[in-house]
Design a protein that fits this description.
The complex is a heterodimer. Chain A contains seven helices and nine strands, in the order βαββααββααβαβββα. Chain A is an alpha/beta fold. The N and C termini of chain A lie far apart (about 45 Å). In chain B, helix 8 packs antiparallel against helix 10 and helix 10 runs antiparallel to helix 11. The chains are: A alpha/beta, B mainly alpha.
Chain lengths: ~210, ~400
Amino acid sequence: MELNFFVDYHRCIGCQACVQACQECDTHRGVSMIHLETIRRADSVQTAPQVCMHCADPICARVCPADAIKKTPDGVVQSSLKPRCIGCTNCVIACPFGVPRYTVEVDQMMKCDMCYDRTSIGKKPMCATVCPSGALSYTTLDDFRRDRRGTPVNEWVFGGETVRTRVFVVVPPPTEQMLIQLTTAAGGGAGPDTPADRDDVASLLEGR
Amino acid sequence: MQSLPTSPRPPGSVGVSPADGSARHAGGTPTLPGGMTPARPGPFTFSTACSLGAGIVMLLGIWFGSRGLRDFDSALVWYAGASVFSGMGIAYRYSMWLQRPPTRLYWRRGWQFFLNPARLAWNSGRLAGLFWDNFVLQRFIERRAPLRWGAHWLISWGCLLAAAVTFPLSFGWLRFETAPDSQEIYYCYLSGIRVLAFPTDSFVALVLFHVLDIAAVMVLAGISLSLVRRALDRGALSVQQFANDLFPLVLLFAVSITGLMLTVSSHVLHGTHHGFLSQFHAITVIMTLMYLPFGKFFHVFQRPAQLGVRFYKDAGAAGEPARCIRCGEEFGSRLHVEDLKLVQAQLGIHYEMPDGTHYQDVCPPCRRKNLALIQDGMWRAASLASEERTHG
């Protein structure tokens, strides 16, 4: 049975276990590649993890002038090849998910590689292993459907660009695509309003 | 690993074809009605021309450098032939690589900013500094891992040292000869011009006669360090591949060890099996030269692009910054973002949003936050809808 990665942002409790565990990955020892975003630091405790979504046709690789980003046959997009990466940061600012990191000291782009040292031999990625809330999970589709609510979706629309990913995001049914527009925590901004929640700290502070 | 954006696809035709079935063309070549394309040389034609051009230049270089083949050593003709073939392969792949939209843009911009007359002097000084730091010392590799640096430094400088001697020798540009009036003096000629004279029992002679042995020892030491790292580093173990990571080491080992065996045969074994060993060594060198354009060693030719990127970044930092349309924070240079939009258009990446904004103008942290907020919003909407259904 094929194992899949599922991200459920709204389950994140901000414990940082994933950030610490990520550093244990052997392909980037001591450096955490996962992003843990605090959505609005000033007035909300909401946090969200972001791993590489491992696109089927990765935009990071397409815009790479050095041809340094490769995908394994099992669909995992790797960090840039050390001999080739020229540190241009095209991938960093072109990735629709904001995943790649450029490290100045080593002049190289590195990113989440789904703990390839582990997943390539059938183990779970470090972050999914330690996540206590199920925001990050690595299991089969059948097990996911049996144990969890929500629909896993791996098709994203960024304006005119449709991106399919190896990693799924968990959304309410019957969603089939993630239509990405700009939005902010309080529901303002360029995109559609986020439905106001009477218990949401940010919304309360803004008098919504 | 799967090679995403490279051959056999034309440059620029990365990934799958668009849903409408139309092909992507190198450099954004427009498709005319009826599926016709404008009549202009395709990427393969251009690269074939570059390859042939490189071959002709190398042959002319051999002809003139060896004074009409007068200094050409016919015993080295296989090395020279393989070098020309390798040069043609490198030119082919390099020109294909340069035709990819992002590569072409960086190439053009890098030269544009470097050759800016107002900054040329400063840029030249910076280039010298970057060359010393990145190529001579290879400090950026040292910062990645000292063991990797040690292995890479020894292999790269061992190979460059050997190349600096063997290519001029096999092309007939470099020639050694004893002095007409003394067997104790050696002359070194470069394209027929005497550039060095030294006694055969001097230290210079010792170094010059054994420079390839020195290079071989450096390469073998580097290979040893590399194998230690590749055997112990669990990260490397998980991603390394035989064809891409180990085969180059096998080739370099074969070249170095057979080269050293020639010396051992001459100096220790009184020439035992020297003929066989020289043939064997030639085969390993020719195999390595053939591998040069198509395997891991090609990074030697790609890597100087790193210097152009530095000048591009300098120019970007001196100009207007890019500000995120969501949070207003700076996240790079306006130059870089606008150039990237051009590249994306050429590659068929469409980040234009329905509201007229461009997703490329959103900073990476805001992209991550945005994704989480959208998903969160969907769950809230579903929850509210459920509540409404429950309470009427």
